[in-house]
Amino acid sequence: MRRDPRDEGQRWLEQAHADLKWTRHLNEQGASYLVCFLAQQVAEKALTAFLYACGDELVIGHSVRQLCKRASEYDTRFQPYLDEWAVLDSYYIPTRYPNGLPDDIPAHVYNQKAAKDALGLTEAVVAQVEAWFADTAPPEQA
Is-contact 95 36, C-beta < 8 A? Predict the structure, then answer.
C-alpha cells in the first residue's frame, strides 16, 4: 500500500533534519569535507521530500539542481534558487574520493569557508521546503 504523498514527504524531511543536525555537529568539529558532502545530501533529501509530498511516486537522482528544477515545476518559489543551490552538486563526488581531486585528498582541500557556505546553502533549501509544508498544511495541521 502506497503512503500518503504528504506523509512520505514528511518522512524524507525528517531524515533531512536528522542529517542536518549531525552536519552542524561535524562543522563544529572541523570536518569540513564531510560537512560539504552532507550538505549536498541534506539538500537532496529535502527537495526529494518536497517532490514526494507533491505526488511524485519515484524520485531518482542526486543533482540538487535537477531536483530544484523539478520542484519549481510544482511551485515557483524554488526557481530563483536553481543556480545558487546548484553549487551543492560540486560536493557530491570530490568530497568523498581522492581520485576526484588531482594530487590531493578531500580532507586537505575543503576548508571551513567551504563548509560554512555549503551549510548555509543547505539550510536555505531546508527552510524553503519547510515553508512550503507550512504554507500547504491542511487546516488541522496548521
Answer: yes
Q: Which CA distances in Å does 98 have to 53, 101, 102, 118?
A: 36, 6, 8, 20
Distance between CA atoms of residues 91 and 36, nearest Å: 6
| pTM for this predicted structure | 0.95
The answer as to whether 30 is a domain residue is yes
Q: Mean pLDDT across the stretch 43-47?
A: 99
Taking the C-alpha atoms of residue 75 and residue 22, their distance in angstroms, rounded to an integer, is 29
Asked if residue 14 belongs to a domain, the reply is: yes
Grid coordinates representing 117 are 557556505
Identify the pLDDT of residue 140: 75
Nearest to 67, CA basis, from 82, 84, 87: 82
